[in-house]
Amino acid sequence: MSEDLIIKQVIGTDKIIHEPARIVLLAILNAAEQVDFTFLLNETGLSQGNLSSHLSKLEKAGYVSIEKTFYKKRPRTLISMNKKGKSAFEEYLKTMREFYKKL
Amino acid sequence: MYKKLDPKQIEKSVLFLQSRDGILDIFFGLTLGAAGINGMYTSLEWNIPWYIRFLILILLVPMLLAKYFITTPRIGYIKMQPVKGGRLIILKIFLLISFGLTILMLAASIFKVQFIHGQMLSIPPVILFGAILLLMSFVAWLIGLYSLYVVGLAAGIGFFLDKPLGLDTIFNLPGDLFIFCIPGALIIIYGTIRLARFLKTHPLQNVKADFEHE
Fold this sequence. Notes:
The complex is a heterodimer of chains A (103) and B (214).
Chain A: H1 3-11, H2 20-31, E1 32-36, H3 37-44, H4 48-60, E2 64-71, E3 74-81, H5 83-102
Helix pairs in contact in A: 1-5
Chain B: H1 7-15, H2 23-43, H3 50-53, H4 60-75, E1 78-80, H5 86-110, H6 114-122, H7 125-143, H8 147-162, H9 167-170, H10 175-201
Helix pairs in contact in B: 2-4, 2-5, 2-8, 2-10, 7-8, 8-10
């Protein structure tokens, strides 16, 4: 891939994904099939409000599915990555890896 | 938060989240310790009913309870993808084989099954040390469960304390104390430190937190 093309791709990269907290969230969701809100809270160290905000952005972009259920009479929110989210994340990783190789 | 934004590292960390609590290490240590105490019964000719010596089997119960009451509420819910869970399957098989071999050695020792017991005693300790260290290191490298390096090293140290250094003869104590009990104690200490760290970094307060739509 030419350097010009790589630079253009990096500049035009998905801004929804290209944010440290959301990269970590998607990396976790890429490894697991489904997790709950508590799990993400513990893993990322983000505050409840901050995490909710990032998940809302990812949900609006159609990258994750958020499902509210109950477990042992307590509310539990389950999060999983969609196919759209997986392909967008793979594309993002591919672009960034190409870019970092050239540095 | 993760210090490195490396998705591969994050994946590995997620896969072995369950091992961060140190409970598995404590279980390994207790198993080794129980095997050592059992061996000492034979060496010191203590008259203990055989079924008491099978109490090692109940070690699984506190471990599972600890996972249920301590780990799972703190970590939260996670369902692994089948493909990425391949490493977990290897770990489960490894644990099953380890536990099975321990039971076999225990039964051979209690019921003095000469063929197995004799075979075990005839293997030079250095060979056993090398084999254990290599096996544990290989599994640790293969599945990325690095605490197994510590388990393998501690188990191997026990053999060196016994035969090559000859501490059992010097102090006139059963060899099982050095081969099993001391490494078991070291691994329990290591697991306890990890458990303490885990309890500090994963407080229960997050359990009630939930997602709020913007």
